[in-house]
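C-alpha cells as discussed.
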C-alpha cells in the first residue's frame, strides 16, 4: 500500500529500455565531459584561454555590470567621522536583517545630534541587494564593486565593523554634504 497515491498526467514521458538501463546514459555523460575537458586542456597547453575561467583578482569578468554591488563602505564627514546619522533606515529596509546600529547622542552637534556608536554588517547573511544604499537619506553608505577578503573561513570574521567600513577605501564625496561645524544648526525659514 502506497502512503500517497501519485497523480498521473496524460503527457508523462516514458523511458525506453535504452534510458532505463542507465549504463548507456552514464557512458554518454562521461563522453561529453571528457570531450569538453580535453578540448579545454588542449587550449590551456597551447597557451590559449580554455574554459570561461577568470583568474581573479588579476582579472574581472567581462559580463559584470558596471554598477555591480560589492562591499559596503561608510562615507566620511570632513572631520573624519561617519556621515551616518543613525536613523536605522538601512537596517529597517534590509531583507536579510544583517545591519546592526547602536545610536549615540552628541548634544554639541545641533544639525544631527545622533551618530552611530556601533555599525556592523554580517556578510555571512548579506544578499548584496543594495536596498540599504537606496534607503539612506544622508548618502552615508555605499557599495563598491570589489569584495576583498570575502569569503572567509570563519563566520565570526564575516562581521565588519565601523572601523573597517570607514578605513577601507575611504570616501568623503557625499551627495548631501554635512553642515560645517560653525553652522547655526537652525532649521526652517528665519
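Sequence:
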Amino acid at each position: 500500500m502506497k502512503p500517497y497515491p501519485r497523480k498521473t498526467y496524460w503527457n508523462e514521458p516514458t523511458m525506453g529500455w535504452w534510458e532505463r538501463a542507465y549504463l548507456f546514459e552514464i557512458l554518454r555523460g562521461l563522453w561529453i565531459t571528457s570531450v569538453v575537458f580535453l578540448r579545454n586542456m588542449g587550449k590551456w597547453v597551447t597557451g590559449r584561454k580554455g574554459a570561461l575561467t577568470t583568474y581573479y583578482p588579476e582579472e574581472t569578468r567581462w559580463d559584470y555590470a558596471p554598477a555591480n554591488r560589492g562591499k559596503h563602505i561608510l562615507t566620511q564627514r570632513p572631520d573624519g567621522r561617519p556621515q551616518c546619522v543613525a536613523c536605522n533606515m538601512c537596517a529597517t529596509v534590509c531583507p536579510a536583517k544583517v545591519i546592526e546600529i547602536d545610536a549615540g547622542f552628541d548634544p554639541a552637534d545641533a544639525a544631527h545630534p545622533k551618530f552611530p556608536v556601533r555599525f556592523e554588517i554580517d556578510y555571512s547573511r548579506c544578499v548584496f541587494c543594495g536596498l540599504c544604499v537606496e534607503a539612506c537619506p544622508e548618502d552615508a553608505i555605499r557599495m563598491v564593486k570589489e569584495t576583498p577578503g570575502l569569503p572567509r573561513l570563519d563566520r565570526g570574521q564575516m562581521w565588519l565593523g565601523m572601523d573597517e567600513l570607514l578605513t577601507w577605501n575611504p570616501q568623503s564625496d557625499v551627495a548631501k554634504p554635512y553642515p560645517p561645524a560653525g553652522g547655526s544648526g537652525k532649521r526652517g525659514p528665519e
